[in-house]
UniProtKB/TrEMBL annotation:
It holds the Pfam family ABC_tran. The keyword Amino-acid biosynthesis does not apply. This is ABC-2 type transport system ATP-binding protein. GO terms for molecular function: ATP binding; ATP hydrolysis activity. It comes from the Bacteria. PROSITE patterns: ABC_TRANSPORTER_1 (PS00211), ABC_TRANSPORTER_2 (PS50893). Transmembrane segments: none annotated. PANTHER family: ABC TRANSPORTER, ATP-BINDING PROTEIN. InterPro entries: AAA+_ATPase, ABC_transporter-like_ATP-bd, ABC_transporter-like_CS, P-loop_NTPase. Belongs to the ABC transporter superfamily.
Length: 297
């Protein structure tokens, strides 16, 4: 798989604050990456460095396997790292045409991208009449005019109402499905869980996890079990090699697994020992629970 961006041992220090602390990340073509972390964890700083608007303290980053200078590589990158800003009294179409003129892109792209973000029917409206969600979608259209390899978004749904949030998230998925690699920063877990295939969790500039979103969620999971005789159930469970630990939760047992065990298999094993379950549910931790586990100190 082609590498779009490789960051190696990146550091950024602002006087006392170690904003980015030894971050190494590889962004591969075709995936949707989320940098996830609470406010102040170094997400925007990291994006700023790779976009050449913030100076790094040390470490390296390399675009497209180093085949281009950073200056040329950034021509193949679409990024929105600030609030969308266009000429308020110009129409959506004219604003995008101006971007085309500056970047030497054919005007036909304006209509293609307005259509993509659902603003073609509003092409003649002045920018100042747009809602924040529409402004954000126009900014995405603008960033896509030159068909970049990768789209970078910093907190793309901040400040939007639920409908606006939904539209942006759906749009990101459409853009990803067309083959554009995406890197977004977000402090919202459910955003990353809904939109991204891969996640980099950072806190205080330090990477806590990176890998697939599924991988972060996929522990072997746990069972919730109930039975008339919990003591008997517990001693039977203690004999099973698949089980990591058992916790009591009121009249339930929470049974954490260290290796795979199907609910049917467990039920059969227990039934053979004359234990009848009155409640059997297999669960997995959500990304949120995993995240809280990772970031608690
Ligand atoms: P995030 O985007 O995850 O919210 P930032 O990258 O904006 O985090 O900030 C990371 C840390 O660096 C924070 O502690 C922030 O206060 C600090 N920081 C960011 N920009 C500057 C700056 N220009 N000068 C001093 N400190 C900064
Ligand atoms: Mg930020």
């Amino acid at each position: 798989m082609e590498t779009i961006l490789k960051i190696t041992n990146l550091h950024k220090k602002y006087r006392k604050v170690h904003a980015v602390n030894n971050v190494s990340v590889e962004i591969k073509k075709g995936n949707v990456y989320g940098i996830l972390g609470p406010n102040g964890s170094g997400k925007s700083t990291t994006l700023g460095i790779v976009l050449n608007v913030v100076n790094k303290t040390s470490g390296e980053f390399e675009w497209f396997d180093g085949t281009y200078s950073t200056h040329d590589a950034l021509k193949k990158v679409g990024a929105i790292i600030e609030r969308p800003n266009f000429y308020p009294y110009m129409t959506a179409e004219d604003n995008l045409k101006l971007v085309c003129k500056i970047k030497n892109i054919p005007y036909t792209k304006v209509f293609e991208k307005l259509e993509l973000v659902g603003l073609l029917d509003r092409k003649d409206s002045k920018f100042k009449t747009f809602s924040l969600g529409m402004k954000q979608r126009l900014a995405i259209a603008s960033a896509l005019l030159n068909d970049p390899e990768i789209l970078i978004l910093d907190e793309p749904t901040n400040g939007l109402d639920p409908q606006g949030i939904r539209q942006i998230r759906d749009l990101i998925k459409v853009i990803a499905n067309q083959g554009t690699t995406i890197l977004l920063a977000s402090h919202l877990l459910d955003e990353v869980e809904k939109v991204c295939s891969h996640v980099i969790v950072i806190r205080n500039g330090v990477t806590l996890y990176q890998g697939t979103v599924d991988g972060m969620v996929a522990s072997e999971g746990f069972f919730e079990l109930e039975s008339e005789n919990l003591a008997q159930l517990e001693s039977a469970l203690q004999q099973l090699p698949q089980i990591e630990k058992i916790e009591k939760d009121e009249n339930k047992l929470l049974v954490y697994l260290k290796s795979h065990l199907e609910p049917g298999e467990l039920n059969t094993l227990l039934f053979k020992q004359n234990i009848t379950l009155t409640h059997l549910v297999k669960r997995k931790n959500s990304l949120e629970e995993q995240f809280l586990e990772l970031t608690k100190h």
